[in-house]
Amino acid sequence: MKLITVEEHFDTQANIDQFNQFSEVPNNNPHQEALNGDLKSFACHVAYMDKYGIDMQVISDAGNSPQVLPDNMVVASSKAQNDTLAEQISQYPDRFVGLAVLPMNKPEDAAKELERAVTELGLVGGIISGSVNGQFLDDPKFEPVFAMASKLDVPLYLHPGVISKEQQAVLYDSKAYSKATSTLLAGAGWGWHQEQGIQMVRLIESGLLEKYPNLKLINGHWGELVPMFLERVTEFMTLADTNLPHDFQFYYKRNVYITPSGMYTNPQLALVKAEVGADHMMYAEDYPYIKREDQVHSFIENADLTTTEREAIAHGTAEKLFKL
Fold first, then answer.
1. Are 301 and 257 in contact (CB under 8 A)?
2. Residue 102's domain is classified under what CATH number?
């Protein structure tokens, strides 16, 4: 069975060095140094893909993202990272396509970089990691980026990012357990995903998807908690004065695409399929942060899906969305 995985990552030594020197956002992955070899080597990606039967990866930078660098560096660093991504893809054109990192704290520049990355470099969309210096994306200042994605008809992957120190202190720090436990809860254990779920809810309630009806947004990790509360949010938001002609789940089911990000769990797959359908689901491993190896094939092959649903999730939805 053909497999396209759509949340897979890379990095460069230049960006790693800049991130370590200038970023105020910590990288709280305890295994980051060990991962850097795989992140920097597209040959390692290909060898892994060949071994475990992955036909294509959609590659992006979402770890030490240049998105969080200081404003006087972020545009040039994002361009350099996207240039390198495009150059590496050109060496393996049948195995990779890419998503552009964007200098989001400078929205006009971010929109221009998305346009350059798509029209000149051949990348197939953009990726935004978390909130932007504590700002959520429903702030009108970020609209140029969404307008450009709509104009170009390319998707934006809304990936988790490291939450603020203030969020961690209020929501996750505790006298009852260690700081290490707090950091894990605030990160990949819960906090990243909760914040990204809030991000999606706010964007929909802002009216963004009414204004840009063809905008496509992607969430990983089975929808960052939103599908579990889709009917609940819809019920209560119909009581609010939103001035939107459709309810929350209308926009969610029309405009949002969901991947597992390596969370190969059957209950979540069944829930997401019931909520949005296989035509809004894609496959993802989160390589190299997660390596499911033989499970990459066995999970999708053994899942409770029809043949049509399995093919859509494994590759068909991605082919349509990214125009592969």
1. no
2. 3.20.20.140
List strand residue ranges (DSSP E) for 76-187, in order.
96-98, 100-101, 126-129, 156-159
Q: Which domain holds residue 201?
A: 4-321
Instruction: Return d(Cα 3, Cα 53) in angstroms, integer.
Output: 7
Answer whether residue 242 shows pLDDT above 90.
no
Q: How many other β-carbons are positioned within 10 Å of the β-carbon of residue 136?
A: 16
User: What pTM does this model have?
Assistant: 0.97
Peptide bond into 288 cis (omega under 30): yes
At residue 24, the pLDDT reads 82
* Percent of the chain at pLDDT exceeding 90: 87
CA pair distance 42, 53, nearest whole angstrom: 16
Give dist(CA 50, CA 14) in Å, integer: 28
Instruction: Write the single-letter amino acid at 5.
Output: T
Average pLDDT over residues 34-44: 89
Q: What's the total number of domains in the chain?
A: 1
| Separation between Cα atoms, residue 45 and residue 92, nearest integer Å | 11
Cβ atoms 58, 4 nearer than 8 A: yes
- Please tell me the predicted confidence (pLDDT) of residue 37: 86
List Cβ<8 Å contacts ≥24 apart for 202-206. Answer: 202/136, 202/137, 202/138, 203/137, 203/138, 204/248, 204/251, 204/252, 205/138, 205/237, 205/240, 205/242, 205/244, 205/248, 206/138
Q: Would you give the end-to-end CA distance of the chain in angstroms?
A: 17
User: For residue 87, how many C-alpha atoms fall within 13 Å in the half-sphere facing its CB?
Assistant: 10
* Alpha-carbon span 304 to 202, nearest angstrom: 32
